[in-house]
Every structure is written in structure tokens, then in C-alpha cells.
Amino acid sequence: MKKQTIFSALALACLFWAGCGAMKSGDKNTASVDSGGRAKYVFLFIGDGMAMSQISAAEVFSTARSSKDINVTKLRFTRFPVSGLTTTFDAGTFITDSASAGTAIATGNKTLSGVINMDAGKTQKFKTIAEYARDAGKKIGIVSSVTLNHATPASFYAKVPSRGNYYDIACQMADSGFDYFAGGLVDQRTGKNKDKQDAVEIAKAAGYLYVDSNEGFNALKKGAGKVIAVTPHPQDSGAMKYEIDRKTDELSLADYTKKGIELLDNPNGFFLMVEGGKVDWACHANDAGAAIYDVLSLDAAIRAALDFAAAHSGETLIVVTGDHETGGLAIGFAGTQYATFFDKVALQKRSYVAFDSEVLIPYKEKTTANAAKLADLIPAIRNSFGIDFNELSDFQKEQIEFAFQRSMGNEQQRSFAEDQYLLYGGYEPLTVKLTQIMNQTAGIGWTSYAHTGVPVPTFASGVHQEFFSGYYDNTDIFRKLASAMGIKV
């Protein structure tokens, strides 16, 4: 009898847990929103390439640059009342790219890397959460620090079999009818071969106002109509500048976010997606300093949403997530063991891109390989990365010299053709070696120049913030957003 009782209890327990396991991660969070109202204003912030390591690095840095205390200065969004953990794999691989991750977040569907809002067979097209919100009467804004037809922003309005179809994506900006696009430039606006009708002109013909100056941007007022506002100071590939390189009089991600709020605010509400896209680009190049400053830039943009939410209590939802992690960033390096020196990151004054364009490339253009000397660049290296050669080990000096010779095109004693990617990731050898050594002295390590498969955190504040608690897939974010807005999908 006793055994039967124990067996029955175990059976009931198994049934209970089986039922819990059978419940999709979003099921408990898609209950009727009538009990708590609907989210009228929705902000979705995406840190491209941002997982917990990038966030933690920014928090540790924020403390280290002002205090020697072992503490963490939390970012605005890590103080949100609700947090969850989100898986990122796609239909073909455990390590996703931004196109398939963006598709998952925007539409709730898995697809292959490189594909935007189409199924793995590249025949079926998916409707995005931004399009659902538009059809529900909300105004829509898309902001990104990278080009506006790059993978993540495109995932909210375009449908293409390849993320590389930049021209096709650009043309779909106007077709979307969205109200506000802002940030980086429009890439390949006349096609890859520059032989097609200008996509920006197509947008203008569809009623969009195109703004590419500070004066034009500042003049934008509520009621301006549909707007495409791009940075007057583009950097690599038409993106906004890295935050570490941005001058104080140049527009920031926060500026574009604030203007979006101003232009989109209306009685029916809005949906605004803001991407910190260059967190990813910096991590690809193993440039922790540039990545950290861009995480802080995203956090500053989130402040604008929080200020708006404070004036619209009970109507606003703010969600912050990443699409994947990039670089395998770790707080910890074998050479420093248990020690970190994040205050050294504050000595960096240029991103890897700025160092290339302002220091290394001009030097290569005026100096032959045979005449090149690393000593010529040591002052600029110290100014850019805070690296004091007198404090480096002989091994580190040797690594930098080797990388310098590779950047100058000089032959080495051994061929490293097969190891070139492992050593430098396809970037300028000298530049990436300098970022790596600067990172290592700070106690920061890397495993990759590409994406990794770790889950990313998701944070939420506001109306139906509770939907975003738990451990769930990136496709669930779409359903949670729709449910919070009361949209049937």
C-alpha cells in the first residue's frame, strides 16, 4: 500500500511537470491583456551582438573609470523590474546571424542565416510585429546606428531571400509605409552596380522627407510626415560613428530616439525599434572599448524611452534584448588571472576603424614597406589605445611588431596564410593586435571574430512587463509583444 501511494504521488508529480514542459514558453504570458490594459506605446531596443558579457563589461567599466571599488554600476535597463533569458539558434545552426535572429524576433518564425522574413525554403513571407502594429493604427519608427537596410532594421519591414540584397531592401522601406527611419545611411541606394533608380528618390516620391544634416534634423517637428533621417557624419560602410569616435556636436543614437518619440507620438500610440548595431561590429573586431561605449550609447537612448514612459504611466512597454552574442567576450584573461583593470579601457580614444582611417592607412599610403618602422606609430598607438610600450612584455612587443609587418605587406619568415583569420579575423593585423593587447591588459578575453551561440538576456519595464520573465526562445518575443499590444496574430 505504501509503495502504491509513493508511486501514485510520483506519477502525479510527473504529470504535473510534463504539463509544465508541454506549455510553450510564451503560453502563460499570452493571457488576456484586458486585466492590465494594452501597451499603447512600445519600445524595442536591440543590442546587436549584445549578451550578458557585453552588458557586464559596460557596467564594470562604468564603475572602474570613477572608482577602485569592486562594485557594479548598473545600466538603466539592467535595473528593469523584469528580466528573462532568450535562446537564439535558428533553423539551420546553433549560432545564428542577425538576419535569422531578426526574423525570429520580428515575426516569431525560425529561418536560415542570411534570410530575412522568409521561410527556410525562401518561398513563404512572414508579417512582422511592426507591420501588425502599423495595421492596428500605430505609427512605426525604425532607428539603427548601422545602415537602415542592414539585417536587423530590415527584419522589421523587408522580405528577401538574402540579406545582401541591399537595394531590394532599400526599396521596401518606402513600401512599408512606416513613419520614421533614422540613423545610418541607406546602403547601395542605386544598386550594387550603381545602375538602378535611387531608392531614396523612390522613397521621396512615396512622400518621405529625406534629411541628412543637423540643421534639417533639428528642424523636424511633429506633423512633419514620413521621414528618413540619416547621419551627416557616416563612418564605416555608411553607419553612424562609433560612440567613442563621435564628436559632441554630432547626432547620437539617443538624439534619433528622442526625435522619433517626438514625431511618432499620437493618440493611437506607436512602435519604435532602436538598434545599437555597432556593438556587434566592434565585437567582430575584438574592440572591447568601442563595444562598451556603444552599449552605453544604447543605454542613453533607453533613457529617452524611460523619460517618455514616466509621463505615460500605464501605457508604455520598454523591452531590451540582443539578437546574439558576438566575439565570445569574457571578463577574464589568462594573463591577468583573477585580476581586472577596466580603468585601462578609459585610456582608449579611438575605435579600431578610426585608428585605421586616421593613422594606419595614411601611414601606409605615404610609407613604403621597406621604409616602415613601428617606432613611427608608437606615439599614435599610445594616444589611440593607451598602450605604453615600456610596460609591455617582450612577447607582446614581438606580437605587435609581427602584426605591423603584416599590415605593411612585408613577408615573414613563415607563411601564416592559413592562420591569418585566426590571428586577425580579416582586419588590419596591427590594429586588431593592438585592441587585443589593450583588452588583455584590462583583463578582457575573446574566443572568436564571429557570433557565438550563448543565450542573451531580455529586460522589460512597463505594461505587461511580466510577459518577459523566464527562459524562452527569441521567437517568443514576437508573441509577447503582440499580446502586450492586444494584437491577434
Structure description:
With 489 residues, the protein is an alpha/beta fold. Helices cover 38% and strands 13% of the residues. It has helices at residues 2-22, 52-64, 98-107, 129-135, 151-154, 166-176, 199-205, 214-218, 253-264, 278-284, 288-311, 352-366, 378-385, 394-407, 420-424, 429-442, 475-485, and strands at 41-47, 82-87, 139-144, 180-183, 209-211, 227-230, 270-276, 316-322, 325-326, 330-331, 444-445, 451-452, 456-462, 470-473. The strands form 3 sheets. It has a 10-stranded mixed sheet, sandwiched between helices. The protein has a two-stranded antiparallel ribbon with strand order 9-12. It has a two-stranded antiparallel sheet with strand order 10-11. Strand 5 (209-211), helix 8 (214-218) and strand 6 form a beta-alpha-beta unit. The relative contact order is 0.19.
